[in-house]
Design brief:
single chain; alpha/beta; Nucleotidyltransferase, domain 5; 40% helix
């Protein structure tokens, strides 16, 4: 018999002050795919609630920005504050994952997969792909 979490998804969040990239796992939590990018504005919590409910999310993986040497970055404090808000609003496990290099890897993925240069400039493209990189690393057990 399958446990109730086996067909629920994991949501990854690449937090930014302007935009927030989201990625989801498949129901079996084997692979990650870029889902969408939402604005970090007054609609943020409504948007996140809808994504979590509509996609049966059971866990959130939140990218934790660090400097290359591992020290906290300027955004680290904001992400930790956001993590606390997520914990208050949703009764879900929140896992912090080192997100160093995720945007760089996402940028490379976009260049390889999006042939039209005009489409590559879409602001949210890197954000949701960075969230997918963070999530795939988590799913693969690659915790740095």
């Amino acid at each position: 018999m399958e446990d109730e979490n086996s067909l629920k998804r994991i949501l990854a969040i690449d937090f930014g002050l302007k935009r927030i990239g989201l990625a989801l796992s498949d129901p079996l939590a084997i692979f990650a795919y870029p889902f969408k990018t939402i604005l970090n504005d007054k609609n943020l919590w409504n948007e996140l609630t809808k994504v979590i409910l509509d996609n049966s999310v059971r866990k959130i993986v939140l990218g934790l920005p660090k400097k290359e040497n591992g020290d906290p970055s300027t955004l680290t404090k904001e992400v930790l504050k956001f993590k606390n808000q997520l914990e208050e609003k949703f009764n879900l496990e929140i896992v912090l994952v080192d997100e160093r290099y995720s945007s760089l890897i996402a940028h490379e993925m976009v260049i390889e997969s999006v042939t039209k240069k005009s489409k590559r400039k879409e602001k949210g493209l890197i954000d949701k792909n960075a969230a997918a990189v963070i999530l795939q690393d988590y799913l693969d057990g690659k915790h740095y």
